[in-house]
Amino acid sequence: MEERSLPENLLMGRNPVREAIRAGRSIDKLLVADGEMEGSARELLRMAKEVGIVIQQVGRAHLDELCMGGRHQGFAAFVAVRDYVTLAEMLAAAREKGEDPFIVVLDGVEDPHNLGSIMRTAECCGAHGIVIPKRRAVGMTPIVAKASAGAVEYLPVARVTNLNTALEELKSAGVWITGADMSGQPYYQCDFKGPIALVVGGEGQGISQLLKKNCDFVASIPMKGKIESLNASVAAAVLMCEAARQRSL
User: Fold this and answer.
1) Residue 100 to residues 92, 94, 165, 223, 243, Cα–Cα distance (Å)
2) What rounded mean pLDDT belongs to the chain?
3) How far apart are CA 110 and CA 115, in angstroms?
4) Is the pLDDT of residue 197 over 90?
5) How far apart, in Å, are the Cα atoms of 19 and each of 29, 87, 120, 159?
């Protein structure tokens, strides 16, 4: 049996978590034991809320198991393996290269291997960055970094509170939004040139109806077999490769 070890990106204890927040490190999630709401704990929670960190209350037994008996003092945080960027920074980086923005927006991808695989393909296809939501989606974990085969070092990732708001920001910057959904026209008939954002849904659910309404266009991948859909990372790869092909013409 493989020996268990602490997650590489886990911080435990009030002081380490507090200093990480003060230093501006990107924190995917803060776990707080039930009942830890008094004194210094209250101040720490206030700091986390002010910078928009996702906070999840859990049983103390859960923290004990996660931290493998370490002194967590009711607090544990998962730190991103790389700092996130803002949408504005992502768009500015594309413009500095003299290129039309090519952004990939992921709606609820929860499997770290899928996210890592998507990042690897996005980097290879010339995307300028990936946008993920803070909730109900995997963040920049060590497993994601490993699955990305090094792409994590080159591809910026923005983590936003609301994907619909992010799409509106992209539209304001002149970016056209294309959603991936079976109701759309075949992807090879779609125009992926110019400033675009490609919205891809998570495992099993696809993109939300509200997100789809905010898309300017919808692209589909025609299915010939008995299986109705592709894995999220494979579907994203098909669309990104078509975008890369068109943008290189």
Assistant:
1) 10, 7, 21, 30, 12
2) 91
3) 8
4) yes
5) 15, 26, 32, 21
